[in-house]
Design goal:
Helix content: 10-25%
Number of strands: 7
Distance between the termini: 51 Å
Strand content: 25-35%
Strand order of the largest sheet: 1-2-5-4-3
Radius of gyration: 19 Å
Largest sheet: 5 strands, mixed
Order of helices and strands: HEEHEEEEHE
CATH architecture of the domain at 4-109: 2-Layer Sandwich
């Protein structure tokens, strides 16, 4: 059975300071890397003869509007069915340069996940075979999951605040 410590030490030995911010929330090994290293890190974990982390469970974006030069995160959840081991890898990117390499070169399932992340956050996956909107209409000129829109319509007059616990 793999341990988080074993995998973390192997990653540090291979990638040095290009992997950082190691944590274990709820027992899941979580780390960060750079956009230049995300594909080599995923490939290393995928091709490793012991780890065999060959299933991309999820890929999504997160918007942190107050984090200067790290406004967006792309989060990868990967799983080894052989070892029953899960890992989470984060890459933070700036809104001014919102590009990251596609993971479709390793995982076919990344295709739709990257399209969804682009559709909702506007993150551009370089090298993606068909990076177009998947759930919203092509004519949309904004990305609805970004935290730059009010959660409520302040102009509504048909709501009574007391009914909403305010």
């Amino acid at each position: 059975m793999l341990s988080n410590q074993e995998v973390a030490e192997e990653l540090l030995g291979k990638f040095g300071d290009q992997v950082f911010d190691f944590e274990e929330p709820y027992g899941m090994l979580t780390l960060s890397t750079t956009r230049e290293q995300i594909i080599p890190v995923l490939e290393f974990l995928n091709k490793h003869k012991t780890y065999q982390i060959n299933f991309l469970t999820d890929l999504t974006g997160v918007h942190y509007p107050d984090n200067t030069n790290k406004e967006f995160a792309v989060v990868y959840h990967a799983h080894s069915f052989i070892q029953n081991f899960r890992i989470r890898i984060k890459v933070f990117i700036a809104e001014a340069d919102i590009h990251i390499p596609t993971a479709t070169v390793l995982y076919a399932s990344a295709n739709w996940m990257e399209r969804e992340t682009y559709d909702f956050y506007g993150i551009l996956f370089d090298g993606h075979p068909n990076l177009v909107r998947i759930l919203n209409i092509e004519e949309m000129d904004y990305f609805p999951m970004r935290k730059q829109y009010a959660l409520e319509d302040a102009t509504r007059e048909d709501k009574i605040d007391a009914l909403f616990g305010r």
